[in-house]
Amino acid sequence: HGGTSAAAPLGAGIFALALSVRPDLTWRDVQHVAVRAAVPVDTSDGDWADVAEGRRYNHKYGFGKMDAWRIVETAKTLDHVGRQTSIMCPRDEANTDIPVLSRQGAPNESATRTVEITAAQMAEAKMRRIEHVTVVVDMSHDFRGNVEIWLESPHGIRSQLATVRQHDNSNQGLTDWRFMSVKHWGEDPVGKWSLHVRNAYLPKHRGVLKAWQLTVYGESTEPDTRPHLPPTIGGGGAADTDKGREHDQLPPPAKPVEVDTGAMQKISALLVPLLLVLGSGMLSALGMLMYMRRRERKLADMRWTALDAIGDSTIEEEGFRPRPHPHGGGALTGRPEDDEDADVFEIAQADSGHVYSEPSGRAYKHTPTDSEVIRLADDDDDDRTKGTS
Predict the structure, then answer these.
(1) Any transmembrane segments, and where (predicted)?
(2) What is the pLDDT of residues 3-31, one digit of tens each?
(3) What is the reported pTM?
(4) Which is it for the CA torsion 359, 365, 368, 372, positive or negative?
(5) Which residue stretches of the chain are H helix?
(6) d(CA 282, CA 229)
(7) What is the dihedral of CA 136, 139, 144, 146, to 10 degrees?
(8) Which residue segments constitute the domains of the chain, with CATH numbers given?
């Protein structure tokens, strides 16, 4: 499982380790630690691109995987970053048609709009470098998932804000939809920023880029003068009034949780007999099932033995004694005349024409309609001996 549901708690645990050695780190300090300590993975993937400060970025993997050891070691020596600052560009009321594809596979054309950030704006914001950017897009379109949106920085670095979504067939477009990207982390924001919006693959779908707005967030040249340590744990609520100004030591560890072993023993005492009863019942049922299956196989073998013995067995009429069947049908018992020590066997009533065998291997055919037992012989004249049932 490698989805966000698994990644989030793993990341939380790793950053908890970092905060255990540097509890004074702010949330933005932790962001810088994560970016600096990231390790690129699957480097053969074609989406990796060189970005600012000698790093690489991938639309699927970001800056790479989190390495717990590297994150903790980076956190130990990190200097606090400056306070956060931002530059918000004026909203561009574009009202530009998004070019329509004439056919599937035709060259894509984009609706492109540009805004510029000046050195004066950067100086006014006292921005040292970019951390992340946001783009708010207002757009109409009759098949929203057919649209791709790209943001290109003054240094030619392109971040993909919206990808093709084949099942997103909404005709509502995007209403002031906010996108964010960290691909421009560490860049100088001064210069022209371009937004590219295009129909990706389906022809004849139409849309209009109504407006968009770029905001750049980054680290200020001024230090962050706010307290970095978390507030002390006091009486809670209004009683905790230091608001982080005093923090001589970490709060004491919580009292260990004691487990009620007596309750566990009671539960075990109830469960063990129940499990034994269930287990023995399952074994009994399994044994009965195996017995029934063996019995069925034995009866089947007897029928095949009877068929194979047709024409090989003889019996004298005097050696066969009929008796009534307890359920009202006919049943036959008998002993071969030539073997006085043989066991008496029984042939139960069955449909006319069924063949049965007795323990010595001889075969008999029971015909209830005329209450006859026909001896099956292998001689050429097909002798028969009759009895009553």
Answers:
(1) 270-292
(2) 788 889 999 999 999 999 999 999 999 99
(3) 0.58
(4) negative
(5) 4-21, 27-37, 68-77, 119-125, 261-309
(6) 61
(7) -90
(8) 4-77 (no CATH), 84-220 (2.60.120.260), 307-375 (no CATH)
